[in-house]
Amino acid sequence: MALMTGAQYEESLRKMRFNLYLQGEKVECPVDHPIIRPSLNAVKMTYDLAHDPAHEELMTATSHLSGEKVNRFTHLHQNADDLVKKVKMQRLLGQKTGSCFQRCVGMDAMNAVDTVTFEMDRDLGTQYHARFEQFLRLVQDEDLTIDGAMTDPKGDRSLPPHKQADPDMYLRVVEKRPDGIVVRGAKCHQTGALNSHWILVMPTISMGEEDADYAVCFVAPADSAGITYIYGRQSCDTRKLEGGALDVGNATFGGHESLVIFEDVFVPWENVFMCGEYRYSGMLVERFAGYHRQSYGGCKVGVGDVLIGATALAAEYNGAAKASHVKDKLIEMVHLNETLYACGIACSAAGARTASGTYLIDMLLANVCKQNVTRFPYEIARLAEDIAGGLFVTMPSEKDLRHPEIGPKIEKYLGGTSGVPTEDRLRVLRLIENLTLGTAAVGYRTESMHGAGSPQAQRIMIARQGNIEAKKGLAKKIAGVAGEDTKQGKN
Ligand code: SF4
Ligand code: FE
């Protein structure tokens, strides 16, 4: 089966046996849980759209391994055009779901692991790349969703992994056996983990020799024995238990994160892609982060499109659409959103081939992209709140609107321009609330700050890639300063 349908994907998840806790209770099957279900719907969209002829070009690609048509989320980028299409696909999915659709972390992890295992084998004579390719074949043939797991708890941030008071603050190998390894530790903020078939674990920082046990990369079925999931709660999440749809804002789609704990999980050697090669952990972190920083130039833009649309509707529904300052604020929102997209497209178009043949984004531009993402969605959200007015945080509930006695009073007093049903106005305001303060704000706001690395991580990369020395050389030459620096940087 090369391409699963959304329905087949859902059925495949029903067969998983996760050890999952949510709000202090064990959940047997996440698929039908009302808090979790919208996140599954968002991933399902990545399957359904692949069957839509209108979106086939973005949603599918030709596998370099089998020559078969595969879902782009399982594809390794074979050229810069693939990188550009990835970003366009992510914008499309952000527009369709208004939320995080989760499947990108696995795609980004697989592309990064492909390039690093190839270079490790070339330099060290290890056998990791062939193992990884075997796993990738399975992913492509069965159209699987993969959780790319990087972030460790990290304990005391001033100490490296081996110096932590509790050695489990970074995930590590606790035993090497003839048939495989045993790992212990945890991964935090795991986007879409419970909608994934496999989990691809990577180290979270550059490691030194004494951290060799922590330099580990492997895959495991997401419901392996010894893995526990503790579901992360989101602002306003229990509204999904109230039965109605209006107060949720986006009742169909959402994202999720969980804390994933590995307690002595056994991983056979064929699923291990790094084990002790600490010098390559930093390269893997940088490349995965680079790909995911590119991703935000697509997904956040698509969600931004939904927020801009909702804001324009809110203005229209209360008669403010023609006010010049409202028009100008909407222009500003579009300008900011398209600037993010421009960075996502630019770092993709400037991508280059790595030794394995897989294309990597331009690192400097990908980091600039994510640095902008740590700021612009906040400004877009601020402008949305400005235009929406205070009602989106003070209005009564859906139950009040449906109440035979007070419902008509709400209809009357919260109506806007004539001809627009009050309920439509309230629905759009709840969507703005969802995107800026509710469950979707996890992805649109805080994840924009910290996802794919916090702002300082990008500044370190920008400092490293910015090539100030070459720029000084350019200035010296034009200024006629003696001792002209002839180093030529690409930037
Ligand atoms: Fe994909 Fe964006 Fe969600 Fe990351 S935050 S998984 S890039 S949709
Ligand atoms: Fe993310």
Report on this model:
There is one protein chain. The protein has 17 helices and 14 strands. It is α+β, with helices and mostly antiparallel strands and 491 residues long. The protein folds into two domains: 6-281, Butyryl-CoA Dehydrogenase, subunit A, domain 2 (Beta Barrel); 284-468, Butyryl-CoA Dehydrogenase, subunit A, domain 3 (Up-down Bundle). Strand 13 and strand 14 (359-360) form a beta hairpin. The chain is globular and about 75 Å long. The protein binds iron/sulfur cluster and fe (iii) ion. Fe (iii) ion (FE) is lined by residues 191, 292, 447, 451-452. Residues 191, 292, 447, 451-452 line the site of fe (iii) ion.
Identify every distinct bound molecule in the structure, by name, code or SMILES. Answer: iron/sulfur cluster, fe (iii) ion
The DSSP helix count reads: 17
- Cα-atom Rg, whole angstroms? 24 Å
CATH homologous superfamily (4th level) name of the largest domain:
Butyryl-CoA Dehydrogenase, subunit A, domain 2
Number of domains: 2
Overall structural class, as computed from helix and strand content, comes to alpha+beta
Roughly what fraction of the amino acids lie in strands?
5-15%
Q: How many strand units?
A: 14
Query: How would a crystallographer describe the biggest sheet?
Result: 6 strands, mixed
